[in-house]
Amino acid sequence: MNFNNLLWEQDGKVAIVSFNRPQAMNALNLETLEELERVIWKVANDNSIGVLILTGSGGKAFVGGADIAELRALESSIEGVALCRRAQGIAAGLEEMGKPVIAAINGFALGGGLELALACDIRLAADTARVGLPEISLGIIPGNGGTQRLARLVGKGLAKYLIFTGSHLTAQEALELGIVEKVYPAGELLGKAKELAAKLAKCAPVALAMAKRAINIGLDTDLATACAMEAYLFGIAAGTEDAKEGTGAFLDKRQPQFIGR
User: Fold this and answer.
1) Coiled-coil segments, which residues (predicted)?
2) CA 190, CA 245: separation in Å to the nearest integer?
């Protein structure tokens, strides 16, 4: 796939997409968002891809935030709402995709960059990374799900503190707060992300999709409803050929060969 602002690589069943506007700290402009939409559609619908990794090029930033010049050019509240809804749809596409999405945060992930990472399933960070939602310093607020996903991760009070103050967190601080799952030396980050992605790519695709859906939806409903939905999704997974292969391989003491159905 060819893009102006993204780099595409596929290694087996793992797709690696790098934000590639290093001269602008990989800031998200409209063209980049449009290209990311194409990536999401491609990954979601291509059976040769099992896992998506998002990272940044240039070594300094994952995504440094939104394109400030484009924000400055907004002429009305209506345009602001439209921009946010467009970006929110892209983040939802990552969150709802039936395949794991890993954010390899290799530098600054601020504003819209952290919001995209929050929509991913697993966040790995370089020890040099810095994350935050500093929109308040621009006279605006996070608009791509940041107020909602951050609060769900760290709790209402801490989310308010971080958003009201626009604080930047180190990778270690983000790890301690549960914003990222693992921190690695910068030179090891992408290799560790690829290692994890390769492991996930060997799993049964339907089971991964059902597990992701159960967790994402279940946290937003009551426990009884969530458990009933879990049972339904378990039933879907249990009825697949992969379930028969997985249980058979366990009993036969061999590695399973999943086919995605």
Assistant:
1) none
2) 31
Dihedrals phi, psi of 162, to nearest 5 degrees: -65, -40
The dihedral through the CA atoms of 231, 44, 97, 182 has a sign that is positive
Tens digit of pLDDT for each residue in 2-28? 899 999 999 999 999 999 999 999 999
Global model pTM greater than 0.90: yes
What number is the average pLDDT over the span 102-109?
97
Q: Are 60 and 107 in contact (CB under 8 A)?
A: yes
Helix segments in 166-204, DSSP class H: 171-176, 189-201
- DSSP characters for 231-247? HHHHHHHHTSHHHHHHH
Mean pLDDT of the chain: 94
- 247 and 175 in a common domain: no
Q: Could you tell me if 69 and 189 lie in one domain? A: yes
Binning pLDDT at 50, 70 and 90, where does residue 75 land?
Answer: confident
**Residue positions annotated with a catalytic role:** 115, 135
Query: Rounded CA gap, 200 and 1, in Å?
Result: 23
The CATH number covering residue 215 comes to 1.10.12.10
Residue type, position 136, single letter = I
Q: For residues 105 and 213, state if they share a domain.
A: no
Query: Do 106 and 78 sit in the same domain of this protein?
Result: yes
